Amino acid sequence: MRRASCQNNLHQIGLGLHNYHAAFGKFPPGAIEVRPQVANGKQYAWSAFILPHLEQAALAERIDFNRPFDDPANLDAAAESVAAYICPSTPRSEPRINGMGVTDYGGIYGERIVSRNDPPNGMMLHDQALGFRDILDGSSNTVMIAEDAAFPDGQWINGRNLFDQAFGINQAPVFENDMRSFHPTGVMSLRCDGSTYFLTEHIDLEILAAFCTRNGHETNHLE
Known about the structure:
This protein is an alpha+beta fold. Helix content is 19%, strand content 16%.
């Protein structure tokens, strides 16, 4: 039941991303003005930008996007929990990290399993919005969002809510943003076509790397 609830969360996130794309012609950037690359950057995440498309327009209106995500003026809004961003399998005492609402789902910046990810080859990039035309591998072959449960900076408003996959699923050291969950044997993921899929810990690493890229010219299929 918890895994099904997590899958439903990603389904809702997928609808939000697709509605955003319908409105703007592209998906949201993975993050904007990420520190320290941008001194005093605003550092907002994709998960903040799609709030109006997750039936959270009132919450989005409380955010002053002209100020940094952690500006005092934004702290009340940032403290709100958003049900679609919380996996029920993740153990926690409260739905906040450092006073800000959590998320168990991160955007895919690319992969470091078989490449340096330079330039980044995922769908969720810094200061760049991509659309369907940028998915050369096909939307059904490209993972855009995956579980990164209980990571210390996993806050839905925080632009650090994305990662490039570098390890096997549930194998990363604690300090790495990577695919991890509290489901047995794998993680839930969201493809660019809006479909959800459970990626197992036994997946071949080269195939996992291929799913994290938008333009590797792979023809792998998740099924």
